[in-house]
Structures are given as C-alpha cells and as structure tokens.
Amino acid sequence: MTKHDTIYAQPQASLTRFAFDEHVVEVFPDMIQRSVPGYATIIAMTGVMAGRYAQSGSNCYDLGSSLGASTLAMAREIGERDCQIIGVDNSSAMIERCQHYIADIPQSIALRCENIQDTAIENASVVVLNFTLQFVPASERAALIQKISDAMRPGGILILSEKIVFLDPRLQELNTELHHAFKRANGYSELEVAQKRSALEDVLVPESLQQHQQRLREAGFSSIDVWFQCFNFASLVAIK
C-alpha cells in the first residue's frame, strides 16, 4: 500500500538536500502524483509511444527509472516484441523496491543501479527521461543527450519530461503560482510546499523549453515537439 507523503509536514529546523532515499521511496507514488500535474497521463502515453516506436531486436531504456512506472508502461505496450527493457537509477533504495514491482512481468527487464551519465547505451529504439535530466548537473546534460542520440537507431524516439522555466518573468511567476495551487489542492500545506522547495534548491535545476529543444537539435534529433504541457511541467518527443 502506498504511504501518504508527510516528509515536510512538520517544521524542520535544518533542511537537508532532497535525496531519493528510503524515506522518499516509501511515499514516492503519492508524492509524485500530488506534485506533478499530468503525471499519470505522461506515464501512460510514454507506454503508448514506446509501443509504437520500439523496434524488434533493440534496447528500450528508462533512465532515472525510480520505482519503474515508465518501465512498466513500456512493457505493457511493447508486449511480446523481442526488446530488452533496461531501467537505470542511482538510488539503491529505488532499485530494490522496483525489483518487487517487476518480479511478475513476463518481458525481459534489467535494472541497473548506476548514474545515468555512466550507463552504456547501445542499439536503442526508445529512451525515456521522465523528470530525470533536471537532476543531472547542467554541465553534463549535453553529453548525455548526445550519447543517447549516438546510440539510437534511425527512427528511434526519445521522450523527455521535465519541470521547465519560462523566459517571460510574468509567465514564470504565473506558472509557479499555479503549480503551488495544484499542490495545495492535493492536500499539501503552505509549509510543505515551502520546505520541499527549499530542499530541492540546487538539486532540481530546471531549464527552458528553448534550451531543451536546442540541445536536442544539436545532438542530431530531426523532429522535436512538445506533446504535453501543464503549468511548468512539459514532455517533449524527439525522433532520430
């Protein structure tokens, strides 16, 4: 049973940096559903797009797989095709819990506990980065996207979902306020919103859509579009 997220419900004299540790793993499904607008839609359609673009004999990667939501969505839609699904996360607590979720899945799923910057990527037809790149140091993001592009089969697809910032200050302010309103509507208090925001500072570093699109173009993706956006959360699709 999913536990209710109360990590930041009480005042904390000294906030530690946000980390995907055992405490977060316990409440992660509740946390992300109540914090990321459109999360369920993004996960479901990640699976649908994987089902369309996964090529037989190829690898399909979920980079930053956490508890395996995208991994499982891909497995459902890819079905019996001859594909290896690979989930990668650098949190051992996430990988350990994810092992239980995929135990009864008939498809071939491999989990790796490592930094995605260090992951060997090859023969890929589908790569998923759902709310992962924002946690990678900014100086390492271009190299990671280039590595993905270089390893991708022609016609392969990258799904990139991220929290974003707006170049227009008024739109940035509006969408930040709307996101906070979304979290309050889902039961988070002002204290929880404020404390989590502080804990994530310098840990989750978002970029603009324009930055993401330029990086994808420079890496060699030919067709790039935003297929989903709600407030300051967006998902892009890039086709090789």
Automatic annotation (TrEMBL):
Q: Which CDD domains match?
A: AdoMet_MTases
Q: Known catalysed reaction(s)?
A: prephenate + S-adenosyl-L-methionine = carboxy-S-adenosyl-L-methionine + 3-phenylpyruvate + H2O
Record's keyword annotation contains Transferase: yes
Domain Methyltransferase per the UniProt entry, residue ranges: 62-156
Molecular function per GO = transferase activity
Keywords for the protein's UniProt record, in alphabetical order: S-adenosyl-L-methionine, Transferase
Which amino acid positions bind S-adenosyl-L-methionine, per UniProt?
Y39, G64, S65, S66, D89, N90, N130, R197
Signal sequence residues: none
Enzyme Commission code(s) on record: 2.1.3.-
General function of this protein: Catalyzes the conversion of S-adenosyl-L-methionine (SAM) to carboxy-S-adenosyl-L-methionine (Cx-SAM).
What does the similarity note say? Belongs to the class I-like SAM-binding methyltransferase superfamily. Cx-SAM synthase family.
The record's annotation in PANTHER family points to: CARBOXY-S-ADENOSYL-L-METHIONINE SYNTHASE, TRANS-ACONITATE 2-METHYLTRANSFERASE-RELATED
Q: How does it assemble?
A: Homodimer.
Q: By what name is this protein known?
A: Carboxy-S-adenosyl-L-methionine synthase
